[in-house]
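Notes on consecutive records. When two proteins share a document, each keeps its own sequence and its own C-alpha cell line. Never mix them. Below: protein one.
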Amino acid sequence: MTRFKGITALISGAGTGIGAAAANRLASEGANVVLMGRRPDPLQAVAAKTDGLVFTGDAANPDHAAEVVDFAKDRFGGLDVVVANAGGHGFGTLAETTDDEWKASCQANLETSMVLLRAAMPELVVRKGSICVTASIASLAAPADAFGYTVMKHAQIGLVRSIARDFGHKGVRCNAICPGWVRTEMADEEMVELMTRTGLKTVDEAYAHVTKDVPLGRPADPEEVAAAIAFLCSSEASIITGAVLTTDGGSTIVDVPTLAFGS
C-alpha cells in the first residue's frame, strides 16, 4: 500500500517498541518519517530501515518540540501526521509516589504529548493533518501499583478529545490507541519483575500468565499496534476523530467478577 505517499510523519518515542514499529509501517507505505527520541543509537537503527531522519530530543521540552517541527518543515516542506508515542514511568501507589516521581510521570506521559502537539498544531492545521496518541488500557481502567501512569494515561484521553473538539473544524483529526500488553523492551522488563515475584521461568511464561484471561489469549506484537496507528492516521479514517481504539486482544471487555465462572 502507498496510503502515505508524499506524507510527512513525526513519531516520538520512535527508537523502540510501538514507536519503531509505527515508523516502519508508515515508511513502508510511502511516508517520509521523522524519528524523535532521547537516545540516538536506537533512532539510528530505525532510520537505517526506514530512510527516516533522526532528531534527538525530548518531546516534553518546548524548545525541542519547536525545533523538530521546524526540522520537518525544512526537510519535507511541512508536517501531516504526528504519532505522539513517547511515554512510561509512574509506578507505585499514591502513598509511595514522591513529588519528583509524580512530575516525572506527568512529563513522560502527558507533557510529551501536549508539548509536541502544541508545537505541531499550526502545521497540522495548514496540512489538515492527523494525530494518533499512544495511550493505554490504563487510560480506561486502573492497574495495581501504577498510580502516576494511570492518572496520566487517563488524562491523555481528555487531551485527545479536547484537541478533536477544538481543531476538527480546521480539518485536524486526533485519535488515541489503547494497547494492552505488547511485546516491547519495556514490557519485557515488567515480565522479568513478574518472574521474580511468581517463580515463572521464562519471559514467554510471564506473558502467558498476564494474558491468560484476555479473550485472544496473548500479547500484541508492536506491528499489530502500528497497523492500527496507520489506519487512524490514513485517509481511510477520514471521518474518525476523538476516538479511542483499544488494541488489547479484548482485555477491556472481560467481566472481571465472572472470571471465576469461566471455563
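Protein two starts on the next line and is unrelated to protein one.
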Amino acid sequence: MGHPVRGAGAPSAPWVGLASACWAANAALGASVGSGLVRTGRFRWIHHALYVATTTTTALAAARCAVSASPSRRAAGRALAPALLPLAALPHIGTPAQGHPRRHALAALSAAPFYAAALLRAAGPS
C-alpha cells in the first residue's frame, strides 16, 4: 500500500527538467512584462514566486544529481550548479523597477547555458 520510499539513488533527471521549466517560465514572464506584452499589476508576486520555485528546484536538482549513481546525472548536476550563481545575484543587482532592466535581464539569461547543458547531460545514458 502506498508508494515506496526512494533513497539517494532515486531519479534525479526529472528534477533537472522541473528546474529548467521553472526558469523558462520565469524568464518568459519577465521578458513579457519587460516588453510590455503582459502587465502583472498587483500580481507582480507571481514573478517572485516563480523565482523562489526556480532557485529551490535548481538547488534540489543539483543536489539530487550530485548523489546519483548515474555518471550522466552527476554530470548534469555539475553542469546545473553554476546556474545558482546568477540566481543568487539577481536580488542584489537591481530590478527593472529600480531602473536596472538590462542588468537584471542579462543576469537572469546568463543561467540559460547551464540549464541547457544540464538537460543535455541528464538525457544521456543512465
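For the record: The longest helix spans residues 13-34.
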